[in-house]
Design a protein that fits this description.
It is a single chain. The protein is of the alpha+beta class. 16% of the residues lie in helices and 47% in strands. It has a domain of 90 residues. It has a seven-stranded mixed beta sheet, with no helix packed on it. It has a six-stranded antiparallel beta sheet with strand order 7-8-9-10-13-14, with no helix packed on it. Strands 22, 23, 24, 25 and 26 form a five-stranded antiparallel beta sheet that branches. α2 packs antiparallel against α3. It is elongated.
């Protein structure tokens, strides 16, 4: 009952003007209808009396057409005025073409924003509900480390040097086989005063070292009361160094927004940046928030309004820009969409794929505001490609049924796109070619799953799912023919590979049994039976290898598979007694034979390289006959001696 009263109060408050017009017009309408009825009745009586007095021939009674028209116009005039107000308020002057709208001016952007949001309540008695979207966006804004893709990592090498990301710069180590020589520390001397800098990734392009990061300047407005507007001004920074010229700074690019995804392919660095637009803040100036890019000390190139597009019916609360930097041509280009900040973007083959919810509103919202004006939610999928001249071009936009499964509902790999949508009853998985010419419905999944990640390899997709039981994790194997529940445990998918002898897809999962033991599960896809088969399980007592299992297992990119098909897993090891100075990184090698069977592991303790720095990060680099184990504190070199890994040298960073 209380909820109903609250909803009624909110409805009255948010539609006060409309209800006031209706309340005023209703008595006016009733009054004139009463007068019209009384006048019609009186005229009929007068006409009858006139005929009786004059002894006239009986003639059917009729009214003057002008009389009726005049009365009807007077009665419906208030409602015509109300309809005209609604039409003027909801008329959108922008013409949509394939779900993509052109923007011509600041007024167009504000009109799109108002047209979308004026259907929702402005005022909520239950404030927590009205601020849910802002809180979700703020969590996204505060994420320090975006998920970067092809070619970009925390460690890079060119055969002569190993470059490793450190707290504020890059550790540089010269390598020659098992000989290590500390070359120095690369600091970012061009960082502005009072500017916070966060590193995101590095890579080597021929004789260039490219460093990707973001610079943050706190611009929280004084006196701001809403957390959603107390954000930071973030710009993305790309630094390019000449390795042959003593690793000197060669070029710099800066662009507005926070980098959320990046990939390096075919000489082109592709970047995605996002800027949240706080329209509700009084001091917000849209003209000051237009996306820009600057090379070196050049004047920033600001995105013009006519280069910005809007995808139809997507929530317009941010600018999402797609940048292409051609390192060979030394050119750059970018395009911007007015989009939902929580849309998902993936990069593949120098193309950007963008998925976002787009909304269909109830027809009544053309004139009334509702708490939930959404009739249905679909997913828009758009592709922008980088052409041979390094220019970013829009190619196609599709609309698929169901809301985007957030997060990780969009994945790209092996030239294909997987899109997961959801509705009240289930989740639906679509498979598309990279041209987006058509979508194939693959499978329907249960409605209660929570998507943690989505993998794709050789026709098989994996979904790690939480069920209603918070203590379970279900791993589904999705093939082109069926869906199979692979396993139920508190585990993670470690890696994907091919069985060496048969070339069959192989999948390794890790389960934490207790504080001192692990279980590794090997699975493969049986193409004859069209199902995933669990072929081997290996239980490991970590205490036997003097390891200590950390609470959070290493992330995906810290799990490796070497050239001999051994899974390389970094863990912590401790001496006794356990002190901060005694902690050092260790590596566990899980052996995999030609048949895909798992064999007892081998350990490698890097005692010379104390851990000592957070966050823990491990990278595995193979060059010739040597393996370089790179940590934030140093590098350990190992090689194969009589079938076992042996440490041959180590270096500790100063």
């Amino acid at each position: 009952m209380m909820q109903t009263m609250i909803r009624l109060a909110e409805f009255v408050f948010n539609n006060a003007l409309l209800l006031s017009v209706i309340l005023v017009a209703a008595p006016f309408f009733m009054f004139h209808m009463k007068q019209l009825f009384q006048e019609l009745l009186l005229n009929k009586k007068l006409d009858i009396k006139k005929r009786v007095m004059r002894n006239l021939e009986r003639i059917p009674f009729h009214y003057s057409r002008w009389f009726l028209q005049k009365r009807i116009v007077v009665i419906i005039l208030p409602f015509v005025v109300v309809a005209a107000i609604f039409l003027a308020a909801t008329w959108n002057p922008i013409h949509f073409e394939h779900h993509l709208a052109s923007i011509e001016s600041e007024e167009d952007i504000r009109k799109v924003h108002e047209d979308f949001h004026e259907r929702f309540y402005d005022f909520h008695i239950l404030e927590a509900e009205s601020q849910a979207t802002d809180a979700s966006i703020m969590r996204s804004l505060r994420m320090k480390n975006p998920k970067l893709h092809t070619g970009i990592d925390t460690v890079a090498h060119n055969g002569e040097y190993i470059f490793s990301m450190a707290s504020r710069g890059i550790e540089i180590t010269a390598v020659d086989g098992n000989d290590l020589d500390y070359h120095g520390y690369l600091d970012y001397e061009d960082t502005k005063k009072d500017e916070l800098y966060h590193q995101h990734g590095i890579f080597v392009d021929k004789d260039r070292l490219v460093v990707l990061g973001s610079a943050t300047e706190d611009i929280s407005p004084v006196g701001a009361t809403s957390e959603a507007y107390c954000e930071e001004e973030v710009s993305t920074v790309v630094r390019i160094y000449d390795i042959n010229d003593d690793i000197s700074l060669e070029d710099t690019y800066r662009m507005s927004g926070k980098v959320t995804d990046a990939a390096y392919e075919n000489g082109v660095l592709s970047l995605v940046t996002k800027q949240y637009l706080p329209f509700g803040y009084e001091a917000f100036r849209l003209g000051d928030s237009l996306p820009w890019i600057a090379r070196g000390d050049d004047t920033p190139l600001i995105q013009s309004y006519d280069s910005i597009h809007y995808i139809e019916r997507v929530e317009p609360n941010s600018f999402i820009s797609f940048h292409a930097i051609d390192l060979e041509r030394e050119s750059h280009d970018f395009r911007t969409l007015l989009m939902d900040y929580q849309s998902e973007v993936r990069i593949m083959d120098n193309a950007f794929y963008i998925a976002a919810n787009h909304y269909r509103f109830h027809k009544i919202t053309d004139g009334m505001r509702l708490s939930d004006p959404v009739e249905s939610i679909d997913t828009s999928l758009t592709k922008f490609r980088v052409d041979t001249f390094g220019m970013v071009r829009h190619q196609v936009t599709l609309s698929l049924p169901g809301a985007l499964a957030f997060p990780n509902g969009l994945q790209v790999a092996d030239g294909r796109i997987l899109l997961l949508t959801r509705n009240e009853d289930n989740h639906t998985l679509f498979k598309l070619e990279k041209s987006l010419t058509h979508a194939t419905l693959e499978h329907e999944l249960p409605s209660h799953i929570y998507v943690e990640d989505l993998f794709y390899h050789d026709g098989i997709a994996y979904l790690s799912c939480d069920t209603e039981n918070a203590h379970e994790t279900r791993l589904y194997a999705i093939t082109t023919h069926n869906i199979e529940l692979l396993s139920i445990h508190e585990g993670i998918l470690l890696t994907e590979a091919m069985i060496p002898r048969t070339g069959t897809p192989l999948f390794i999962t890790l389960e934490k049994l207790d504080k001192e033991s692990l279980a590794f599960h090997a699975h493969h896809y049986d193409s004859r039976e069209n199902r995933v088969v669990t072929m081997d399980t290996l239980a490991v007592s970590v205490g036997d290898y003097k390891f200590n299992i950390i609470d959070r297992f290493p992330v995906e990119k810290e799990i490796h598979m070497d050239s001999d098909f051994r899974i390389v897993i970094p863990l912590y090891a401790f001496t006794t007694p356990s002190t901060q100075d005694s902690r050092y990184p260790s590596v566990l090698f899980i052996h995999l034979d030609e048949e895909g069977q798992l064999h007892p592991p081998e350990s490698l303790n890097m005692r010379g390289v104390l851990h000592g720095r957070n966050p823990y990060s491990y990278r595995f680099v193979e060059m010739d006959d040597y393996v370089y184990h790179v940590t934030p504190r140093g590098i350990t070199v190992s090689t194969e001696v009589e079938g076992e890994k042996k440490i041959v040298s180590e270096i500790v960073f100063p």
